[in-house]
Amino acid sequence: MAEPAVTRTAVLDDREHALRLFRQMALVRRFEERTEEQYTRARIGGYCHLAIGEEAASIGAIDALDEGDALFASYRDHATALAVGSPPAAVMAELFGKDTGVARGRGGSMHLLDVERRFFGGWGIVGAHLPIATGAALAFTYRDEPHAVLCQFGDGAMATGAYHEALNLASLWNLPIVFQVINNQYGMGTRVDQSNAEPELAKHGATYRIHGERVDGNDVLAVREAAARLLAQAREERRPSLFETVTYRYRGHSVADAGKVYRTPEEVQSWRERDPITRYGLLLGEREIATGADLETIWDEVAAEVKDAISEALAASFPSRDSLYEHLYGDDEWREQFGRMAAGAPFGERGEEPEWQT
Amino acid sequence: MADVTYREALRRALDEELDRDRDVFLMGEEIGRFEGSYKVTAGLWQKYGAERVRETPISEEGFVGAGIGAAMMGLRPVVEIMTINFILVAMDQVVNHAAKIRYMFGGTVGVPLVIRTPGGAGAQLTAQHSQSLEGWFAGCPGLKVVAPSNPADAYGMLKTAIRDDDPVIFCENLVLYNVTGTVPDNGDHTVPFGVAEVAKEGDDLTIVAHSYTVQRALRVADRLGQDGISVEVIDLRSLRPLDVDTVVESVRKTNRMLVAEEGWSTFGVGAELAARIQRACFDDLDAPVERVGAAEVPMPYSKPLELAALPLESKIEAAARSLLRECGL
To answer: Does domain B197-326 fall into CATH 3.40.50.920?
Structure first.
């Protein structure tokens, strides 16, 4: 096993790094709270899944990525995009369906991505992005590139067949990938021990002869340290691993779920007492890295950043109707290829709309 | 320009594309030492090694997904699904992922993936191994779907597919593998997508088909020709993009159309063409568009029943004669 690439001590010794982690978690928390509010104001449509409470599990691992590594996530992906550094205004614009959104308004909440920052998508079908992330790791091996893939997913994904096929292939083929299950205790309203015969999820690694490891997903430094070590192992030894981060979501599965019928208020409260951001803030105080006032300043700054993101996203334009057929195919030849398909078609594959449709 | 089989035409295209571009690699069940269930990849594992001709476990959802991921990173995987029937366990990866990725992500990432897979029936392979499902994929925006009917097109279209920047479902056919024909020696010979071919010219009736059914249609045309009936056979070659213009042009000449296909007619390729042709050629048609497809049952095992279910030449011929009779021919 590779040594920790960056220990928790090393993070705390680097004040800028230590504060950056706090800032990212605070930004996600405020962004998600404001997103919830924007949804209730009907500025966001469709499904909308919030990661409030899970900030440390997601951000701690993403912080351990090196340049050139690739990241895949589930549909609970607002935190993912913000953690890789996508501009909050472009993320919010995507939620609003605007042309300036990260997916030009084609994807929405569940399908954020930022290819430039090596974030290859929020994916909407539970478990199905695991084989795809495995293929990205295969590409690194095929090209002999020294990178790793971090693939994040929820505990619900571990009951799917795609999960099994992905881990089996990754181990058989010695691929550089860390499968990170963000175990937030529930797949929608089904508790992890009701969906998985072995609810200690890290133990599944044994089935594939890969290292499995469980850490406290509400301890951002523990997550970061383990992720750094596992990613280094993936890059150096070309072996996958299964990384379980145990955490909790305070909100329901999506904004349409109040999150009440399948759990008790006491349970939610018990997790709030282990809140990842509060805990980390206290640690920064204890170690005299930041004062309460320093952290307040950060909270104010991220609140302003989110406010600006909302304003900017609100001001942005929606995609034009004329752009409906853009991005369907990639090569320049597709319009020519499809050019002989229009006859007798009510929907005009050439991108033209018949008069009765406009 | 020696005659080669459809199988050899495919093998040659794969060989040349593997040689031309290191980003191209093959993946699938038994495609290495075993040389593929239908021997399309014969010799390639020995020539290019296990990394470029990657054998997979029985894990279609897994390795189709892995092909998508590798393609998103810029490689050009050619995935073999042993028969089209097995693609059903990977349907989520094909329809929900490969087809959606470029559009859903605003054009920022693409999937230059080819999935090769044979359909077809007639060897008593029974219900779970005798389907022609290409129409399902042809109805899905984001995919390209092709189904060549002869060795030259198999060769040229596989090259086009591998060089294409989007996911292509490349439909082969179990019966076609041993069909022979000439293939150009030019290693850069490609056949464009979205251009149908007039396989035989005629004036009285247009028969439209794809894949192996084109061969059946050509034999039916010969037989009808002996009775003085002039049949035009159109080989669609691509299903998505679909070259409707060539069909329209033909129907404007013959005023009659029959669509034959190996899959079920209901919601099939013929249904799509009938809808488009009635709209584009309403004033040109002398008779309703006719369709011939497989009997709408799961394919039975027993030989007489299987023959009763297949869209054989005798059925296509009978449907053609009946259509012509309606027109007094």
So the answer is: yes
With beta carbons under 8 A apart, name residues in chain A contacting B164.
331
pLDDT tops 70 at residue B1: no
Using alpha carbons only, give the angle B31, B33, B39 rounded to the nearest 5 degrees.
50
**Interface residue B76 vs chain A (CB under 8 A):** no
Is B210 an active-site residue?
no
Contact list in A for residue B101 (CB cut-off 8 A) is: 121
pLDDT (mean) for B122-133: 95
Measured between alpha carbons, how far is residue A41 from residues A37, A45, A88, A125, A328 in Å? 6, 10, 19, 27, 31
In A85-207, alpha helices (H): 88-95, 129-142, 161-172, 192-195
CA separation for the pair A48, A32 (Å, rounded): 10
Residue B27: beta bridge partners?
B54, B79
Contacts of B77 in chain A (CB under 8 A): 135
The phi and psi torsions of B256 (rounded to 5 degrees) equal: -145, 140
Q: Given this model, what pLDDT does residue A292 score?
A: 97
Q: What is the pLDDT of residues B32-87, one digit of tens each?
A: 999 999 999 999 999 999 999 999 999 999 999 999 999 999 999 999 999 999 99
State mean pLDDT over A319-332: 89
ipTM over 0.85: yes
CATH class of the domain comprising A8-319: alpha beta
Q: Which residue has the higher pLDDT, A344 or A358?
A: A344
Architecture per CATH, domain B3-182, reads as: 3-Layer(aba) Sandwich (3.40)
Parallel/antiparallel/unpaired status of strands B53-55 and B24-28? parallel
The Cα A280–Cα A290 span in angstroms is 11
- In the annotation, is B60 catalytic? yes
Tell me if B3-182 shares its fold with B197-326: yes
With an 8 Å Cβ cutoff, is B166 touching chain A?
yes
Q: What is the percent of chain B with per-residue pLDDT over 90, rounded to a whole number?
A: 98
- Cβ atoms of residues A242 and A204 within 8 Å: yes
Q: List chain B domain ranges.
A: 3-182, 197-326
